[in-house]
């Protein structure tokens, strides 16, 4: 079951040596709250514009215990105990000075930039002549573009279809001939993109999809982990979490592949990518929404022999734009000249939550229904909320409805509110800082391909950790192509899952015992991955940032010891720190920017010098990726929440069975204005 969201795109116009007590972060020297008993409770930094105080300063301002001694007795007691007139421990002050010196030796300055802004720097379009025309919506779906909110495919009360009933049932993924469509071309393999790179004299080229994960982390950094704005949701919707999903917040990585002549291609790191039914359906459904039924049916495996070679090899249409040293490529999904700006927009299809929770077991969650506009569950509002938390920043299935979500609406959800003026400037500032980051990497390892990790610190709002290491092209290819080797058998596995699940449902319908089949199906669907249990258990469950607790430090130090015995390629750990200023005033994050406001960012890179700490931090970042991007661990984390949603899926399947029995023999009425008939 899919909900289709039609979304506007950004148009071209537009550690070895650890302190013993308390344990602190090997990366940023932050003291975890549970080890820092002297620190008083502080207000959430997200609710104030004042810069966040480091943990050490917070400890200095902790309230002192009351005493009944006289002032003179107090003073003499202080002196005898080595305390000055301000109540500060002289010994403690010496320790702080020592810690500051230790901090200075742990990090060495690399680059400092003052007053970076993008007031006059714009994203410039690159005009490429003779590109194929951009697709347009079919089935009357263009009506969605000009109607705010969700438009049901079939009105739940009258059962009248707003659009062609053909859209109700999606062509099964096993029946669509994907060999009849062009394959996605990564930036490093796009010869046309490389030619444009040379022509425009830029240094880095990449698709917007390959850069999205990295730019998300720059959003976290520049926004100071701003909470999401869900004021657009109804009062009937209650949700305690108003931050991005754990999956979105976890470290991300890219490959920066050297292409000669000092130029590089940005490819998304596919180490954790898995073939799944949703990625394939996204490709087929895009064609379904932009083709009439007769043309789309030609892509069914039984009919694909009727397609011409021209149709099979039809190239995609792209937008090209530049900013700084970047040349960016974005696929143009659809166009409508009546929309503001360029008229271009993205087509995004989205599965309901029961399918997304466990995509590998998609037939189990496929019965989940969307029955209302608002509410916590089985509603469009639930799906919209989940999109805010993840997508705004990326079976016998049915389509329930459609919605056009403008860029302004997405900005309102993640940038304070409507008309804040933040989104566009933040995007360009992010590109500017990413440009500086990649320059640091390529200057350190010139002419080398690199793997680069980004991890924004969730405890200290102004810091991001960056790791880059050189890799040979053969190593990168092995990582990137590992999953492709299994793609040939993907459809066969999908068909087996669907068949097994259908047989189980038939047995249940006949009232036979199906427990054994359920167990076998679960086993067949599980993806087994190698786990390093000792280190996995050591990662702090309550704080997914680089806070090193005793267990984690011990576990990762063992890893560092083992690494020392092997010859490890050189790698660099950088810390990116920033200070935001609006009209010269320091702020944690901008809340509103008018046309005359100037947002500037001071930022600096420092390099970690301690080899033990470097090893620990690098291992930590990789373990975080494995923990949250590995499908098994992600599915386990849902716990009772998953069981509840799956119960809804079972109820939804029963509801759908009753609906089909009631409606299948009835005439399907499609909306048409009576005034048009006259």
Brief characterization of the structure:
Residues 502-541 form a coiled coil. Helices cover 37% and strands 16% of the residues.
What do these coordinates show?
Strands 2, 3, 5, 6, 7, 8, 9, 13, 14, 15, 16 and 17 form a 12-stranded mixed sheet that branches. The protein has a 5-stranded mixed sheet with strand order 4-12-1-11-10. The longest helix is centred in the last third of the chain and has 24 residues, at 640-663. It has 23 helices and 17 strands. Among the domains are: 124-454 and 469-482 and 633-663, no CATH class; 486-525. Strand 10 (334-335) and strand 11 form a beta hairpin. With 678 residues, the protein is α+β, with helices and mostly antiparallel strands. The two termini are 37 Å apart. 35% of the residues are buried. The chain has helices at residues 55-60, 71-80, 90-106, 191-200, 208-222, 246-249, 277-290, 293-297, 309-312, 353-357, 362-365, 380-389, 407-414, 423-444, 473-481, 490-509, 515-525, 533-538, 550-565, 611-629, 631-638, 640-663, 674-677, and strands spanning 2-7, 107-116, 124-126, 150-152, 204-207, 252-260, 263-268, 318-323, 326-331, 334-335, 344-351, 399-405, 449-456, 463-471, 572-582, 585-587, 599-608. Helix content is 37%, strand content 16%. Helix 5 (208-222) packs across helix 14 and helix 19 (550-565) crosses helix 20.
């Amino acid at each position: 079951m899919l909900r289709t969201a039609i979304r506007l795109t950004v148009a071209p116009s537009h550690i070895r040596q650890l302190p013993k007590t308390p344990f602190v972060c090997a990366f940023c020297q932050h003291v975890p709250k549970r080890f820092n008993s002297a620190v008083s409770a502080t207000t959430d930094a997200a609710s104030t514009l004042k810069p966040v105080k480091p943990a050490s300063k917070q400890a200095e301002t902790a309230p002192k215990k009351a005493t009944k001694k006289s002032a003179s007795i107090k003073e003499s007691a202080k002196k005898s105990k080595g305390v000055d007139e301000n109540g500060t421990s002289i010994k403690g002050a010496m320790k702080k000075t020592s810690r500051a010196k230790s901090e200075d030796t742990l990090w060495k300055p690399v680059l400092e930039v003052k007053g970076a802004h993008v007031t006059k720097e714009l994203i410039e379009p690159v005009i490429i002549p003779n590109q194929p025309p951009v697709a347009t919506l079919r089935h009357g779906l263009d009506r969605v573009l000009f109607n705010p909110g969700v438009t049901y495919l079939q009105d739940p009360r009258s059962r009248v279809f707003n659009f062609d009933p053909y859209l109700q049932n999606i062509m099964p993924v096993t029946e669509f001939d994907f060999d009849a469509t062009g394959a996605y071309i990564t930036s490093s393999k796009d010869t046309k993109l490389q030619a444009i790179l040379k022509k425009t004299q830029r240094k880095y080229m990449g698709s917007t999809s390959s850069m999205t994960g990295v730019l998300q982390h720059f959003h976290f950094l520049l926004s100071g982990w701003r909470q999401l704005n869900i004021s657009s949701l109804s009062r009937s919707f209650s949700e305690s979490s108003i931050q991005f999903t754990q999956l979105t917040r976890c470290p991300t990585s890219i490959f920066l592949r050297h292409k000669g002549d000092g130029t590089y291609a940005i490819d998304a790191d596919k180490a954790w990518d898995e073939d799944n039914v949703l990625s394939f359906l996204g490709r087929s459904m895009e064609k379904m929404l932009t083709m009439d039924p007769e043309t789309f049916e030609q892509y069914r495996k039984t009919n694909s022999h009727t397609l011409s070679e021209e149709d099979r090899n039809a190239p995609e249409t792209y937008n090209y734009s530049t900013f700084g040293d970047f040349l960016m490529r974005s696929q143009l999904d659809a166009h409508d000249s009546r929309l503001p700006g360029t008229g271009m927009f993205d087509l995004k299809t989205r599965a309901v939550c029961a399918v997304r929770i466990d995509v590998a077991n998609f037939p189990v969650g496929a019965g989940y229904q969307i029955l209302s506009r608002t509410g916590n569950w089985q509603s469009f509002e639930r799906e919209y909320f989940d999109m805010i938390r993840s997508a705004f920043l990326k079976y016998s299935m049915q389509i329930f409805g459609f919605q056009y979500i403008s860029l302004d609406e997405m900005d309102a959800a993640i940038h304070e509110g409507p008309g804040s003026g933040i989104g566009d400037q933040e995007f360009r500032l992010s590109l500017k800082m990413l440009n500086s980051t990649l320059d640091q990497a390529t200057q350190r390892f010139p002419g080398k391909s690199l793997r680069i990790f980004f991890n924004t610190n969730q405890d200290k709002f102004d810091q991001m950790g960056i790791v880059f290491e050189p890799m040979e092209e053969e190593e990168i290819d092995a990582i990137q192509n590992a999953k492709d080797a299994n793609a040939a058998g993907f459809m066969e596995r999908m068909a087996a899952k669907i068949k097994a699940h259908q047989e189980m449902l038939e047995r249940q319908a006949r009232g036979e015992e199906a427990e054994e089949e359920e167990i076998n199906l679960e086993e067949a669907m599980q993806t087994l991955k190698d786990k390093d249990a000792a280190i996995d258990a050591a990662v702090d469950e309550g704080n997914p940032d680089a806070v090193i607790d005793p267990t984690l430090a011990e576990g990762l130090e063992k890893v560092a010891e083992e690494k020392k015995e092997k010859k490890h390629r050189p790698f660099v750990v950088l810390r990116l720190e920033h200070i935001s200023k609006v009209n010269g005033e320091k702020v944690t994050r901008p809340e509103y920017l008018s046309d005359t406001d100037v947002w500037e960012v001071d930022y600096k890179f420092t390099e970690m010098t301690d080899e033990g700490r470097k090893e620990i931090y690098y291992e930590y970042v990789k373990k975080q990726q494995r923990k949250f991007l590995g499908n098994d661990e992600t599915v386990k984390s849902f716990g009772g929440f998953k069981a509840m949603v799956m119960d809804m899926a079972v109820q939804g399947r029963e509801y759908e069975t009753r609906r089909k029995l009631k409606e299948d023999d009835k005439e399907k009425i499609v909306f048409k204005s009576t005034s048009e008939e006259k």
